[in-house]
Backbone:
């Protein structure tokens, strides 16, 4: 039923259940607020959103007032709401004056300065001066970890951070104690907050009470230029903005993208920025007599080309790492195919995903937004909290909003929401697939069942069998239901993986997979940013080229190092786990002599005698879109029918009964950029010491 | 300062005019640790209506070579010459130094291309990986 209102003389009609604040906004009025936030529960404690409702003796907090709760006028005429009357002005000035009584006047030294809600609203709605001459209140400093810097004297007690931590992050570590003037936000034991999503609380803080510690006092918001780009720390592909001053990314903040990350990002995504400035490869190196010597691009590429031409095609192999963009993978595949080599692999972790089984067999088919419709979720061999922290809070959001049955097969972990633990390995999975397990009935009864398969299930020798079982479960559960709903979801951990599979960066005819390429009979190995693989079995006489951004595991074995560009330094295409192609933006230049990755391969191809037919990024993309058109559809996901899983389900092999192992040992150390970051190292150490304390207490 | 250059140039040190004037009218009152000699007019008054005071530098005529104590006397701030003053320099007082601008010893700020080329840290710096 619709409700009629007159806001500032403008008649509007709003749905039942709308808040008065939203109704006023629909009518075009601007309502100031501090505590209200669209993605959090309503608190109604800052009183900044007061409006006048005619007939009501006092102003009304519009964020907490539903239009249904407004008493009707006697004559049945629509309620009149004023947002700009003298009464509202006076009310706002009064609220602002009370807020500023205990707020310090340290804007010039406050990191929030320039992007502070309190500053802006004091300018827009506050009084000109202060009538307050007494001493201001001071609040003791809190230590809540290396990511969040506190200055609690500035706090205005909107409790956004408390609600965020409790509701979205799912860790009840922040709270408000005391009353009135003595109210304080604190952690219960003054310990560091251990959540993968904790730093979002800083974004929510409308004042400078919580600021980012890693970049404290480093830059002012108006000095920085914002580049809207995409994150590559996990396979979610969160929308981020890289704020640049000079030649460096000063900070990374989330962008609003309802389809992917809402407005949250994980702490790794946000605070990895300092890793972009440490351990950087900024010039080519050639190993001579066991030691690396600086070399020019000409020498390095000449040597690589000579070795490439000398090696027999069947002994050439290439592995693409977790942060490689689609462009360089396409160029490298193109080059090696022209040379007759077929040993390519983008699955350095040993995933058993195969693009031949159809695109639906390796994607998060329901989509991240689809989680909010699912009513039964089975997680297999994954720890979404560590593998895709933002996606995990989407599951938590679903669990909070409606009764959702969630179950886990794999390692027992804390996911920030309760779930039913079914078992550790493929045996349980087989039971569900054969309909012998009670959860099979739950999935069948659900209207939109979802199965999330993680790398723990498919990155092992019998991974394809486990995937096949999961596909059988999905097919059985979705029989006779909405054909557009595909509940088969593969949760990737690497940003580059889906694009690699889309491009067919997998072994061709007679080609070897990652384990084979890294075996003893390869003569030429090209590592495109591949660090998370075991290089110990590569024969000492093999020639290893490492093209990447950071001095990490891959450089240790390399014979030639070619410095490439990180994700903030090039425009590259990444496809997230749900198959959404997105492009990063070049925010800064690569350091020193480093170059954008595809240009290195293009230059190499010329020296190797098979010049690739593209001279610009545009031409390369045109060629890439011809072979993989799905990469051209930026920021969209197509509907992939559940019938696409039948080939996978028919494979029907029986997996071994070994339990699914966790994939991520250390959330903060999953890729070369994160491993170079001092902030990530600090967080990793904090978590380790916390775990030690916990096990000592037990 | 050779005699020839004193006669034919006026830009290096004191000129022969000053030398003659000093011989005719000057009475030396003292000399400082840098070799600057200080004179006062023997008789009559100078342009300021009092006996003129002047200095002759050992080499280049450069006014910042005058130390602060003699500067006071030279500019008529005090009448007692520093050597007669009962003032003792404190241990923390630095010896006087002439202005070095325009000489190779001039001060170069950090980051100046004429200096050592070391500049202050910047947030745009990165740490390169070095092979070990």
Residues:
């Amino acid at each position: 039923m619709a409700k009629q209102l007159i806001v500032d003389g403008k008649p509007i009609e709003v749905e039942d259940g709308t808040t008065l604040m939203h109704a006023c906004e629909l009518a075009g009025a601007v309502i100031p607020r501090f505590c209200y936030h669209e993605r959090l529960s309503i608190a109604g404690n800052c009183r900044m959103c007061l409006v006048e409702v005619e007939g009501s003796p006092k102003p009304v907090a519009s964020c907490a007032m539903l239009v249904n709760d407004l008493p009707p006028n006697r004559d049945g005429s629509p309620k009149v709401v004023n947002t700009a009357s003298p009464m509202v002005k006076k009310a706002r000035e009064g609220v602002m004056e009370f807020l500023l009584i205990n707020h310090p006047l340290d804007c010039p030294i406050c990191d929030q300065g320039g992007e502070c809600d309190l500053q802006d609203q004091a300018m827009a709605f506050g009084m000109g001066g202060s009538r307050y001459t007494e001493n201001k209140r001071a609040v003791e400093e809190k230590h809540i970890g290396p990511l969040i810097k506190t200055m609690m004297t500035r706090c205005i007690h909107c409790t956004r951070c408390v609600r965020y931590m409790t509701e979205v992050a799912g860790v009840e570590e922040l709270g408000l104690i005391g009353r009135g003037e003595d109210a304080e936000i604190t952690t219960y034991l003054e310990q560091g907050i251990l959540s993968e999503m904790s730093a979002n609380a800083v974004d929510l803080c409308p004042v400078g009470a919580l600021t980012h510690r890693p970049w404290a006092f480093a830059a002012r918001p108006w000095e920085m230029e914002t580049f809207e780009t995409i994150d590559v720390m996990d396979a979610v592909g969160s929308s981020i903005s890289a704020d640049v001053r000079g030649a460096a990314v000063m900070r990374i903040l989330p962008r609003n993208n309802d389809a992917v990350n809402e407005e949250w990002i994980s702490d790794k995504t946000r605070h990895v920025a300092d890793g972009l400035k440490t351990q950087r490869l900024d010039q080519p190196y050639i190993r001579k007599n066991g030691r690396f010597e600086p070399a020019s691009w000409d020498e390095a590429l000449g040597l690589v080309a000579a070795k490439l031409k000398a090696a027999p095609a069947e002994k050439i192999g290439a592995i693409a790492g977790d942060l490689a963009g689609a462009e360089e993978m396409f160029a490298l595949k193109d080059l090696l195919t022209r040379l007759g080599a077929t040993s390519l692999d983008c699955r350095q972790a040993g995933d058993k995903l195969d693009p031949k089984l159809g695109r639906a067999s390796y994607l998060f088919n329901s989509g991240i937004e689809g989680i909010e419709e699912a009513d039964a979720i089975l997680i297999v061999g994954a720890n979404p909290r560590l593998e895709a922290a933002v996606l995990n809070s989407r599951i938590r959001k679903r669990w909070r909003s409606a009764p959702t049955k969630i179950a886990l097969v794999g390692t027992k972990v804390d996911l920030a929401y309760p779930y039913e633990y079914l078992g550790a390995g493929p045996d349980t999975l087989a039971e569900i697939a054969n309909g012998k397990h009670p959860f099979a009935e739950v999935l069948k009864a659900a209207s939109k069942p979802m199965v999330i398969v993680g790398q723990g299930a498919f990155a092992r020798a019998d991974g394809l069998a486990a995937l096949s079982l999961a596909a059988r479960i999905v097919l059985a559960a979705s029989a006779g239901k909405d054909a557009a709903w595909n509940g088969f979801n593969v949760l990737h951990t690497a940003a580059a993986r889906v694009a690699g599979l889309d491009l067919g960066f997998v072994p061709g005819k007679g080609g070897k997979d990652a384990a084979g390429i890294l075996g003893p009979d390869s003569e030429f190995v090209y590592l495109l940013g591949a660090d998370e693989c075991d290089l110990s079995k590569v024969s000492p006489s093999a020639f290893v080229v490492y093209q990447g951004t950071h001095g990490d595991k891959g450089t240790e074995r390399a014979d030639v190092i070619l410095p490439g560009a990180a994700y903030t330094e090039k425009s590259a295409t990444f496809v997230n786990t749900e198959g959404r192609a997105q492009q990063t933006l070049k925010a800064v230049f690569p350091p020193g002599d480093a170059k954008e990755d595809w240009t290195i391969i293009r230059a190499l191809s010329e020296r190797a005698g098979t010049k690739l037919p593209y001279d610009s990024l545009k031409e390369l993309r045109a060629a890439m879109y011809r072979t993989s058109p799905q990469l051209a559809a930026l920021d969209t996901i197509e509907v992939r029918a559940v019938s696409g899983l039948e080939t996978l389900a028919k494979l029907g092999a029986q997996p071994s009964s070994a339990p699914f192992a966790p994939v991520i040992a250390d959330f903060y150390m999953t890729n070369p950029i994160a491993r170079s970051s001092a902030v990530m190292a600090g967080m990793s150490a904090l978590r380790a010491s916390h775990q030690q304390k916990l096990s000592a207490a037990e | 300062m050779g005699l020839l250059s004193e006669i034919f140039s006026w830009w290096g040190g004191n000129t022969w005019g000053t030398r003659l004037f000093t011989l005719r009218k000057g009475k030396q009152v003292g000399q400082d640790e840098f070799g600057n000699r200080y004179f006062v007019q023997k008789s009559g008054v100078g342009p300021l209506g009092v006996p003129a005071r002047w200095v002759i530098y050992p080499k280049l005529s450069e006014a910042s070579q005058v130390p602060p104590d003699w500067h006071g006397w030279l500019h008529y701030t005090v009448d007692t010459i520093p050597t007669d003053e009962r003032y003792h320099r404190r241990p923390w007082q630095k010896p006087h130094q002439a202005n070095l601008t325009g000489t190779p010893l001039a001060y170069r700020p950090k980051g100046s291309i004429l200096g050592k080329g070391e500049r202050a840290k910047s947030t745009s710096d990165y740490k390169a990986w070095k092979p070990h």
